Structure formats: structure tokens, C-alpha cells
Amino acid sequence: MINETLEKLKELQDILAEKYQIENELKEIPRSLITKTELVSRLKKSFIEKNTKFEETKQKINDVRIHMQDSERDRETYEAKIVDISTQREYEALVKEIKDSSEKEQTFRKELQREEKVLQEMEQAIEREEMLIREQEEELKAEQEKIEQELAKRREKIQEIDVLEKEITPNMDEEIIFKFKRIIRSKQGKGIVPLHKGVCSGCNMILPLQFVNDVRSGQGINFCPYCSMILFFQEAGDEDILETMVYEDTSSIFGDDEMDDDFDSDEDSESGFGDRDELSDIDEDPEEEEDDEDEEEEEEEDAEEELEDDIDAEIDEVEDDAIEEDGEE
Q: Which of 29, 226, 233, 327 would disulfide-bridge 205, Cβ 3.0–4.6 Å?
């Protein structure tokens, strides 16, 4: 039953990996339009700003033309009055008015010429930008149609994959499937990997011996404690056979027979001393007690002698240092 589940998970892994890849493409493909869409938006914004300035310039030109015409009219009026002048003072004042009107007229005329030139350049720039916007919009529309076709194909592919997924997942543990899908999403299409020489081939981490044996036994679904991928034991060549032998030899070191022997030997050693009540009733030999006391006294004396020797050595060392310092002085 477990082997059958593992085989289904292997098939499901390929299907889900393809499905999640297509889903990522569905998210990524429309992003290619973002740049072109932003370009069109900026062109339109620039076009609006330039068109606004164009209208303002046109209005300014009209105002300058009006001022120029007024100055020209004033000049002509003053020139017509010159024949009616009778005094020198009136003549000088009229000449000054004519001169001022002429200067204003020339100033407005130059400004008008300058603004008309600017207006012409702005009109050409607006025409170019309008043409560019039209081209970009056409390209954007064609790109959108192309992308919609690509998205439609991928959506159809996902529907086909969903059908295959439903054919595989019936009668499988929903919790395992849920975890398996999350693992594949986070591990870039991998969710179930083989065990190789006691190492998870998904994260290359060495696994505990007992866990390896559980995977080899094939009695349940085992998730790697490091990367969370599902592990399965894969029969292979001589190297894996040798690895199996090593695991078996290692496990046999702590086999049941040896543990039973050790347990029996522990029981025998405990039974050799008898019950605690019996031990309390045994009388100790007085001679053995005296020997023990003598040994303790000797050990204490030896310790005291060693302590005295250490103290004497430290005193001698201090005296030697003092003598050396006096000699140096």
C-alpha cells in the first residue's frame, strides 16, 4: 500500500511541477506588458503637457500681436499729427512719442517672431509624439492579443493537468497531498526524492540511522526532518547493497541477543550480592576494620608530608627571588 502511494506521489510530483510552472508563467507573461504600457502612459502624459504649453503659446502670440498692432497704430497716429504742430516743444514731444511707439512696435514684433518659431517647433514635436503614441498603442494592442492567446493555451493546459491530478489523488490521504503540494511549491517542483547512502538527495543532509531504517522498511510516509521532502528507498547497484550491509552490521551491534546477555549478566551480578536485608545482617571482621583504619592514617600522614614539602618549596623559591633582587641592587 505504501509503495503504491509513493509511486502515485512520484507521478503527482511531475504533474504538479508542470502545473505550478505554468501558473508562474501566467503571472509573469502579463508583466512583459508593464514596460510598454508605462511607456504609452508617459507619452500620453507628455503629449498632454506639450499640448497645454502649445495652447498657452498660441494665446501669448495673440496677445503680443495685439500689443504690436496697438503700438503700430499709435505710431501712425503720432506721425499724422506732426503736420499740425506749431511750436518746437510740441514737435519734440511728438517725436518722442513716435520714437517710443516705434520701439515698442519693434520689441513686440521680435517677441512675436520668437514665439511663432517656438510654436512651430512645439507643433512639430507634438506631431511626432502623437505618431509615436499611435505606433506604441498599436504594438501594445498586438502584444496584448498575443499574450491573451498564450494565456488561453496555458489555462487549457492547466485544466488538462487538473484532470490528471484528480485521476491520481483519489483514495489518498488529503493531509499528505496538502503537505506534498506545499513542498513542491516551495522546493521548485521537488517533493519526493530517493534516499542515497543515508543522505537525503533533496538537501544532502545525513539522516539518523533509525530514520534511515524506517524509510528502508517502507512502512509509512517519511518526511525529511531538514527539507520536509518525502523520502523513499531506491534499490540500486553494489554500492547501495554495501551500504545496506553496513547498516545491518551497525544495527546488529546492538542486537537483541547481546542486549539480553548484558541484561542477564547484570542480573547475575546483582544476585551475587543477595538482598539488601541479608547484607545488613553480615558482621564485619574487626581485623579488617583495623587494617582499614591503619591505611587511612597512613594516607593522611602522606598527605600532610606532601603539603609540608610544597610549603617548604614555595618558601625556598621566595627566598631565592629575594636574594636575586638584593644582588641586582
A: 226
